[in-house]
């Protein structure tokens, strides 16, 4: 076991705080500093390190611990290096200072999503190597960019490259969610992220008149239909303790655009929505429902997708599955829960 530092802090915590201080925050993440940090960890741990630039300034870093039987498929441990934007005025401490209070709580953007998991991977490998373990399967750790913006310049491109195919991954693990209880939650699927923009066109005119067939009126009808659906799903979740957040469809209105002046009725208005569609939903029927709401609002109402993930698979959690049996066997003495993930991750790219 690694010894504690001068201030009694475990080296793994110190490493975690160092990683948190790297400003990989969207929309201008410092990926170069993150890659340098990971390269140094690879050197210290005696791991192979490969850098794959999948797009300009977008590097996937692969750290590899070779197994004793290269003919076997590998285990892939994935994490993303970027974090979402911050509003510093709402933070009690600088989100990139990695401040630790007297109770040991660490404040920082990325503490849960998901730099903690990256350090857990690295520290698990360090401990296993220090204890002299060797495994038949090769273990790859991938650190990818741009997950927080949809993965389009990260994992989505990486899986199409020969460097990814060369990893020969048989099983992959990615991010989960923190659990405030002593239970460990295992996520075997996730919801499909659909980012939808509804655009409404209507008659323009002066703000002093009762203009008929306006863009705002028609957009209001669509917004009302979608928010009514949202409330129905929210009530369904709250009324059934067997349901989890990842088993219902959520939606939030995230942006409204339109208008040029207070006294001018706009010809065009739009609303953007973030849908997370539950794994058991018929995606074709759900899209038809969205189109139906637009048609019911009147002529000139259309929708388009900024993001639409449809190729989702559910990982087997049957005891007959060898990968699940190996994973769950180690966790049998822990209280574990299985459910679909409520957010979106990079793992669906592996199924495409």
From TrEMBL:
GO terms for cellular component: cytoplasm. Zn(2+) 2 binds at residues 113, 148. The active site is at 82, 147 (proton acceptor). It is found in: Cytoplasm. Its cofactor is Zn(2+). Its EC number is 3.5.1.14. Belongs to the peptidase M20A family. This is N-acyl-aliphatic-L-amino acid amidohydrolase.
């Amino acid at each position: 076991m690694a010894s504690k530092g001068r201030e009694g802090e475990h080296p793994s915590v110190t490493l975690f705080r160092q990683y948190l201080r790297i400003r990989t925050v969207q929309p201008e993440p410092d990926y170069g500093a993150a890659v340098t940090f990971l390269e140094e960890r690879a050197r210290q741990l005696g791991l192979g390190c490969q850098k794959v630039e999948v797009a300009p300034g977008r590097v996937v870093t692969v750290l590899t611990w070779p197994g004793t039987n290269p003919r076997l498929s590998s285990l892939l441990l994935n994490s993303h290096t970027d974090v979402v934007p911050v509003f510093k005025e709402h933070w009690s401490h600088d989100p990139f200072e990695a401040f630790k209070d007297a109770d040991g709580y660490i404040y920082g953007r990325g503490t849960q999503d998901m730099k903690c998991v990256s350090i857990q991977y690295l520290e698990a490998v360090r401990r296993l190597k220090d204890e002299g373990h060797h495994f038949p399967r090769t273990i790859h750790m991938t650190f990818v960019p741009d997950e927080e913006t949809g993965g389009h310049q990260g994992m989505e491109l990486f899986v199409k490259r020969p460097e990814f195919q060369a990893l020969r991954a048989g099983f992959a693990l990615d991010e989960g969610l923190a659990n405030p209880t002593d239970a460990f939650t295992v996520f075997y699927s996730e919801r499909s992220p659909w980012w939808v923009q509804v655009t409404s066109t209507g008659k323009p005119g002066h703000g002093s008149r009762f203009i008929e067939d306006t863009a705002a009126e028609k957009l209001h009808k669509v917004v009302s239909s979608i928010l009514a659906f949202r409330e129905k799903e929210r009530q369904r979740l709250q009324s059934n303790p067997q349901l989890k957040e990842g088993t219902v469809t959520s939606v939030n209105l995230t942006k409204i655009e339109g208008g040029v002046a207070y006294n001018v009725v706009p010809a065009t208005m739009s609303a953007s929505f973030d849908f997370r569609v539950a794994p058991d939903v018929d995606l074709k029927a759900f899209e038809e429902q969205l189109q139906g709401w637009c048609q019911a609002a009147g002529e000139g109402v259309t929708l388009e997708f900024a993001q639409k993930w449809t190729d989702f698979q559910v990982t087997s959690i049957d005891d007959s599955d060898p990968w699940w049996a190996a994973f769950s066997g180690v966790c049998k003495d822990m209280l574990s829960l299985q459910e679909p993930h409520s957010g979106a991750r990079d793992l669906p790219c592996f199924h495409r």
